[in-house]
Structures
1.
Amino acid sequence: MAGVLVHEWLERTGGSENVFETLSDLFPDAERYCLWDDSDGRFTGVHESSLARTPARGKKSVALPLMPIAWRNLPAIEADWVLCSSHAFAHHARFRGPARHAPKLVYAHTPARYVWVPDLDGRGGGLAARAVSGLLKPLDRRRAQEPVAIAANSQFVADRIAASWGRDSTVIYPPVDVDFFANAAPTLSDAEQAQIDALPADYLFGVSRLVPYKRLDLVIEAGVASGVPVVIAGEGPDEARLRSLAQSRNARVEFVGRPSRALLAELYRRARAVVFAPIEDFGIIPVEAMASGTPVIANAIGGAAESVVDGRTGTIMHDWSLGALRDAVERASAMDPAVCRARAEEFSASVFADRIRSWTFAHTGVAA
C-alpha cells in the first residue's frame, strides 16, 4: 500500500524532525510533504507546499494564518494512507485525487501551543497572536476530527488533545538516541577537551536555547541552594540576563555556548545532575541525561514527569524553593547511574518504531 508522510516545516535539528526522520526510515516508500524544507540537506526528496514559494517561507509568525490554507491545497496524488507529524497545523493536510479519501493518522507533538496554551509559549503572548488564536481554534478543532486515530507524544499532550480537540489519543513517546548517550565514547576536539578541562569537576548542568521560558534561572538557583557550581550550554537572547543573575547571586556559573553532540554527551556524563525546569510537551533532554547515567531534577508539570522516576532517576519538583532545590540535589547525588540508563532505554528509537508499527497497522493494515 502506498502511503504519504506529512510534517510541518523542516529544520536542521529538532525533536519533531527526529520523529519525521524515523518515520521516513520506517516507511521508505512513502511520499513526503512539508510546508518548506530548511534542513540544509538533512532531508532530501521532500515536496514543499505552495507556501514555500512565497515571502512567508521560513517566517513562522507571518506564515501562521496561512498554514491552514496551504495544508488544504495539496496536490492530487495516489495514497492509501496519510500519516501527519503535527505540532501546528499539519493535521489539516488534505490532498486532491485518490489520497483525499485515504485514512489519515496524526502523530501529535502537541496541538499548536501558541493557539491553545499561549501562556506556555512566548509566541502566543501578543495581542495579534491572541486574536489569530481566537479565529483558529474552532477551525483547528473541527479539522482535528478528520483523523481516524491520533497518537500523542506524552500523556501531558494527550490531556491537551482531549481538552483542545475533544479527541482520545494513544501515547507513543518519541524516539531518543539513547545508544549514543549511553555507549558512545565521544571524540572531542582539542578545543573541546580544553573547555571540559577548565570546568569544575563537580557541577549541575542545564542545556537549552537561552530563552526565558526554558527557566535556566532555576539551574542557577539550584547551584545557589546547594553550593554546587553550574554549567549552562546553549545560545540565545537570555544569556545577558542569566549572567547578570549569576553575578547578583554570587554563583559560579560557566557558559559553554552551543555544544557539539560529542561535547554534550561528555557534559551530561560529568554532571552531578541535570536541572530541567521548563514545562515541555515531552522533553528529550531528561532522557538523554538519564541515558548518560545522570539523574534529572525535573518539573512536575509536563512530559519530563513521565520519563523521570522520582527517587530513582531524579527528583520531580512541585516546589522550586531554595530548600526544595537543596534537598533535590542531595537526593540526586545518591542515585544509581545504571538505573538511570535502564530507564532511558524505555524511550529508545527501537521502542518507538515498534509502537508506531503496531499503531499504524491497527488503523490502516500497513505493515512497516
2.
Amino acid sequence: MSYKRIMLKLSGEVFSGKHEGGIDRTALDAVAKTIASVAKNGAQLVVVVGGGNIWRYRDMKQSGIDRPVSDGMGMLATIMNSVALQSALEHHGCHTRVLSSVDVPQLAEPYIRRRAIRHLEKKRVVICAGGTGSPYFTTDSAAALRALELSCDIVLKATDVDGIYDKDPQKFKDATMYKELSYQEAIEKRLEVMDQSAFSLCRDQKLPIRVFNFFKKGALMDAAKGKKVGTLVC
C-alpha cells in the first residue's frame, strides 16, 4: 500500500443498489467485500458513510422540517448505514468499530480521537458515524475533518463516475474528465463532487483527495496503492 492510513468517503447511495433508497443486502455485501480486501492488504482504513439512501436535507426540503432537525435525522441515517456496514465487514472477517459523533451507546462507541487511533493501530477498520455531530455540515466535511484529526494520508472519495468532470458526464456526452486539479481550481470552478468546506479544509492542510469510481472493479485497491485512477486534487 502506498498510504499507511486512508480516509474512504462513501455516499449512502452505494448501499441501495438498484433501489431508490434503503439498504440492499447484495449491494451492502459487495461494498463490504471491496473494503475488506483493502484492509486485509495492510492499509489502516477510516470510513465515513453518508445517509442519502435514507434521509438527506437537500432531498427533503419540501418536508417542512427545520434544517437543524432534518440534519439530525441525516446523522441518524449515517449511523444506520455505519452499523450495517460494520456487520457486513465482520462477516468478511474484518474487525470493525463504529465511533459516533452522536451519542448512541447501544450501537456505537463515542467518537474520541485517541480511541479511534488505537483501533487503527490494532488493524481495525474505523467507521466514523454521525457526521460532525452538528447541523449545516455535510458528511464530506466530516470526512475531511476526521481525516485531518486522524492523520490520514489521503481522502479517497468514492463516486459512481470515473472522476471529476467539467460538467455532469451523465447529462453531457462531451464532458471532459480532469486527471489532476489544484484545490483552488476545484473551489473556483465550484465542482460539486465535494462541498466547498471539505475542499477548503483539505487545501489548508494540504491533504490530497482522489475521486474515483467505486463500482469499477479493482478501483479502490488501485487508489489505495497510489495508482493514477480517477482525479487527484492536490
3.
Amino acid sequence: MTCGGVHHQEISHGEAFLALVQHRFWANGLYLLDEPEAALSPQRQLALLKSIHDLAQRQSQFVVSTHSPLILAYPEARIYHLSEKGMAEIPYEETEHYALTRDFLLDRDRYLRRLLRD
C-alpha cells in the first residue's frame, strides 16, 4: 500500500502514520486519534501538530487521546481530564503530562536520583 507515493513497508510505523495524516485526511473531516504520538519522535509530533492545524483550518475536527505534552499544547484545544470523579476541562499547565515533563526538564538529576534510588 502506498500513501503519498511511499510504500509503507519501507518506512517506520510513525512515518507511515504521519504520511496517512498528510495524504489521506481531508478537509471537513472528523478524526478520532488514540495516542497518535506513540511511534513519533518529538520532532515528528510537531509535524503532526502542523498537519492537524492545517486540517483544522480547513474545517476538520479532531478528538485526540494523548499523553504528549507537545500534542496537548495545541492552541485553543479543549483539554479534558478523565478520572474516577468524571470528566473535567482543565488548562494545559494543569495536565499531569505537562507538569511531569516540566519538572523532569527543570531538574533532571534530582528527579532521576529520586526515581532510581534503591
